[in-house]
Amino acid sequence: MSDANGTNGNGTNGTNPEKDLGASNLPGRRGDGGEEIRVQRGMFGANNGGDTSGYGGLVRSIRLPGPAARPYGGWFDEVADELEGALEEQGLVPENAIEKTIVDRDEITFHIDREHLLRVARTLRDDPALRFELCTGVSGVHYPQDKGRELHAVYHLRSITHNRLIRLEVSAPDSDPRVPSLVSVYPTNDWHERETYDFFGIVFEGHPALTRIMMPDDWQGFPQRKDYPLGGIAVEYKGAQIPAPDQRRSYS
Amino acid sequence: MTHASARETTEGTVYTVSGGDWDEVVQTAAKADDERIVVNMGPQHPSTHGVLRLILEIDGETVTEARCGIGYLHTGIEKNLEYRTWTQGTTFVTRMDYLTSFFNEAAYCLAVEKLLGIEDQIPDRATIIRVLLMELNRLSSHLVCIATGGMELGATTIMIYGFRDRELILDIYELITGLRMNHAFIRPGGLAQDLPPGAVDHIREFVKKMRKNLPEYDKLATGNPIFKARMQGVGHLDLAGSMALGATGPILRSAGLPHDLRKAQPYCGYETYDFDVPTTDTADAYGRFLIRLEEMRQSLAIVEQCLDRLQPGPVMVTDKKIAWPAQLALGPDGLGNSLDHIKKIMGTSMEALIHHFKLVTEGFRVPPGQAYAAVESPKGELGVHVVSDGGTRPYRVHYRDPSFTNLQAMAAMCEGGQVADVIVAVASIDPVMGGVDR
Amino acid sequence: MGLEEKLPSGFLLTTVEQAAGWVRKSSVFPATFGLACCAIEMMTTGAGRYDLARFGMEVFRGSPRQADLMIVAGRVSQKMAPVLRQVYDQMPNPKWVISMGVCASSGGMFNNYAIVQGVDHIVPVDIYLPGCPPRPEMLIDAILKLHQKIQSSKLGVNAEEAAREAEEAALKALPTIEMKGLLR
């Protein structure tokens, strides 16, 4: 089963081979060399000694889809061109602002350098050819394996004018979890950024009132980080006890 | 911002919370020689749509400042999902916004299917039933909105009417999924089960009944002078405000923009259905009420179209590595694997047994990457951001719940208005705290 | 409370107990304590089809000071817990608590950092009602069982005696993990 839907390290992760054959000359292919997010040991990914398969020595690194090469396909090129052009007009070097561009599963992701996020977002909103008016908030992701870029903030921007959706991704190291706030560009991000701060500890610089929103004000820690335990308790039955969900034997 | 004083004990840090900076706020307010007072509404208040806390600064009868306190129903669902298989995830997401269960499930499943790359393999029948359930859900959600909104205005009759009609829809849910709420019926790859015998006739009967009942809301409320006086011009939020605050759904449409993801970015084959997106240009609570009423009519039309299109066929992808539950049947002890299937895997095929065991205990693997899927829930754009690390469990699931985003508009709608209108404005946003706090 | 608590144990007290129990059970005033999904089913119970008015308790009080039954309907988060306790403390005696649904009873499927694993950590619970969410019929059943309990509740010296007995029984009770047999 892990062979069919499983993963390998060379970047063509899990795509259907037959599909790939026909798609090899099409633009927008998934690139190699994305971030390593996990190392899987053994056959079934048993996490606490449950692997009896005899494949315990198997080590595979699991990577996210890597950067894509031009052309990206569809309207993706148009957006990328417009964005780069608009940034150049403002005297910025697009390569500095846009770290990489990923095209995966018909979605385009721009990895933005955090110093340039505010400028890029403003450009995306204001440029008539881009016009991404609606920000659907920010989603934090914690990749403890991605050294130096542990905390990611992911924004989805929707253009009602052009009927498009793109994704911006910004990363910050755990030691310096600062990301500029987008509240001045998209006021809707007010609560979203507070939520991401509450759960991941990403400090959104320039936010008008960055306080906890979901957890009680005196809560310690950031509960949705990967290093924060789920916090469940063992469940007692007659004559038996099963551990909390995060303590149980599991396969990933 | 003042911090609570803290001291270390053997039990951990102990905080002394004495109202925080609210002391200062109240003192400043007391010094000012006017009628300015700070009112704390909730988190347990009959008119706040659940455990919402409103902090209102009032000058006489006028609200000068309004703030929300949320998080009283924070359930940690997004974190819990990371410890369950992809299929089990539907059981959790259905409990987020508990009035729009099917939308939560559908959005989650669309995102997982995008990650798996099986969007085009979902059987037609499954997609049509998904649309059918979602549109019924839109009806029941709007009915609760109108019912509780009416109750908060003091119109108890409309509440009884709303819950009466919602019961009819809940009967259909129960017939199809076995549950009145929290169904976990839409699964990655299709549906848990096919429609039971008699369901189509039952729904047709319901559509007929509902077409008769819907005009009653018009008679009861639409032209009612008291109702109109309480709603018109209240909770005003114009188009620019809606866009800036990211408000979607009836709030955005009441400001005149016909933005509906079912038309803009069709999913589940919505482009093939014939329906209208109602708008008004009043940008107030009354406009949102009218939009909800009209959307219910449109939903009924879509439900009818779904029924006409239903053809016999599978409701789960054919890929046996994903399709679970494969063969479910209703037994005397509830829903479970069908006895025929168990007989087959136990008696005839060792491999099938192993496969079934692995699929159930371990689940299927999803290739690494991230995806965003959005559906038009009754409240607005419901988006799901899903990240996979190639494992059998989600790496991260984030819900962009429309209630959460829309509730931010509360301050803009209420400030400068009357205290009594705060309730109307909040009711017209239709926030469900299960969705806001997750 | 009133004079009835001062009565000596005996025939008179049991008669007053029965009268007081009958009066109390016939007009229970629930406080609106809707939290999550169960709150919707609680509202449904009060609405047309299930019609809680048949049992004299369709009026959900907005203020805890006028209520004597708290139906904790839904998951109780760590942030909500102090609020819940405060509402409970504001209710006048005698008061009862129904823990509606598995989340309120035991934390249910949300075994995590955010949810209190059972509302009995915060307030004493009289009736645990399983289900996710329980059907309105189940809530009505729980309410009727609570009515029976209220009918047979004790007063004055008898109440003290009953409390002592209950405490002794609880101290002697076997922990779940040491119990044998089927779950029932």
UniProtKB/TrEMBL annotation, chain A:
GO terms for cellular component: plasma membrane. Keywords: Cell membrane, Membrane, NAD, Quinone, Translocase, Transport. Pfam families: Complex1_30kDa (PF00329). It catalyses: a quinone + NADH + 5 H(+)(in) = a quinol + NAD(+) + 4 H(+)(out). GO terms for molecular function: NADH dehydrogenase (quinone) (non-electrogenic) activity; NADH dehydrogenase (ubiquinone) activity; quinone binding. It is found in: Cell membrane. It is a peripheral membrane protein. It comes from the Bacteria. Residues 1-35 are annotated as: Disordered. Its EC number is 7.1.1.-. Residues 111-232 form the NADH:ubiquinone oxidoreductase 30kDa subunit domain. The keyword Transport applies. The keyword Transcription does not apply. NDH-1 shuttles electrons from NADH, via FMN and iron-sulfur (Fe-S) centers, to quinones in the respiratory chain. The immediate electron acceptor for the enzyme in this species is believed to be a menaquinone. Couples the redox reaction to proton translocation (for every two electrons transferred, four hydrogen ions are translocated across the cytoplasmic membrane), and thus conserves the redox energy in a proton gradient. Belongs to the complex I 30 kDa subunit family. NDH-1 is composed of 14 different subunits. Subunits NuoB, C, D, E, F, and G constitute the peripheral sector of the complex. This is NADH-quinone oxidoreductase subunit C. It comes from Streptomyces aurantiacus. The gene is nuoC.
Automatic annotation (TrEMBL), chain B:
It is an enzyme of class 7 (translocase). InterPro entries: NADH_Q_OxRdtase_suD (IPR001135), NADH_UbQ_OxRdtase_49kDa_CS (IPR014029), NDH1_su_D/H (IPR022885), NiFe-Hase_large (IPR029014). Its EC number is 7.1.1.-. It is a peripheral membrane protein. Coiled coil: none annotated. One of its GO terms (molecular function) is NADH dehydrogenase (quinone) (non-electrogenic) activity. Residues 153-438 form the NADH-quinone oxidoreductase subunit D domain. It catalyses: a quinone + NADH + 5 H(+)(in) = a quinol + NAD(+) + 4 H(+)(out). It is found in: Cell membrane. One of its GO terms (cellular component) is plasma membrane. NDH-1 is composed of 14 different subunits. Subunits NuoB, C, D, E, F, and G constitute the peripheral sector of the complex. HAMAP family: NDH1_NuoD. NDH-1 shuttles electrons from NADH, via FMN and iron-sulfur (Fe-S) centers, to quinones in the respiratory chain. The immediate electron acceptor for the enzyme in this species is believed to be a menaquinone. Couples the redox reaction to proton translocation (for every two electrons transferred, four hydrogen ions are translocated across the cytoplasmic membrane), and thus conserves the redox energy in a proton gradient. NCBIfam families: NuoD, PRK06075.1. This is NADH-quinone oxidoreductase subunit D. It comes from Streptomyces aurantiacus.
UniProtKB/TrEMBL annotation, chain C:
[4Fe-4S] cluster binds at C37, C38, C103, C132. Its EC number is 7.1.1.-. Residues 37-146 form the NADH:ubiquinone oxidoreductase-like 20kDa subunit domain. GO terms for molecular function: 4 iron, 4 sulfur cluster binding; iron ion binding; NADH dehydrogenase (quinone) (non-electrogenic) activity; NADH dehydrogenase (ubiquinone) activity; quinone binding. Keywords: 4Fe-4S, Cell membrane, Iron, Iron-sulfur, Membrane, Metal-binding, NAD, Quinone, Translocase, Transport. Its cofactor is [4Fe-4S] cluster. It catalyses: a quinone + NADH + 5 H(+)(in) = a quinol + NAD(+) + 4 H(+)(out). The keyword Phosphoprotein does not apply. Gene3D superfamilies: 3.40.50.12280. It is a peripheral membrane protein. One of its GO terms (cellular component) is plasma membrane. It is an enzyme of class 7 (translocase). GO terms for biological process: aerobic respiration; electron transport coupled proton transport. The keyword Translocase applies. Signal peptide: none annotated. It is found in: Cell membrane. Belongs to the complex I 20 kDa subunit family. HAMAP family: NDH1_NuoB (MF_01356). NDH-1 shuttles electrons from NADH, via FMN and iron-sulfur (Fe-S) centers, to quinones in the respiratory chain. The immediate electron acceptor for the enzyme in this species is believed to be a menaquinone. Couples the redox reaction to proton translocation (for every two electrons transferred, four hydrogen ions are translocated across the cytoplasmic membrane), and thus conserves the redox energy in a proton gradient. NDH-1 is composed of 14 different subunits. Subunits NuoB, C, D, E, F, and G constitute the peripheral sector of the complex. NCBIfam families: nuoB_fam, PRK06411.1. This is NADH-quinone oxidoreductase subunit B. It comes from Streptomyces tsukubensis. The lineage of its organism: Bacteria, Bacillati, Actinomycetota, Actinomycetes, Kitasatosporales. The gene is nuoB.
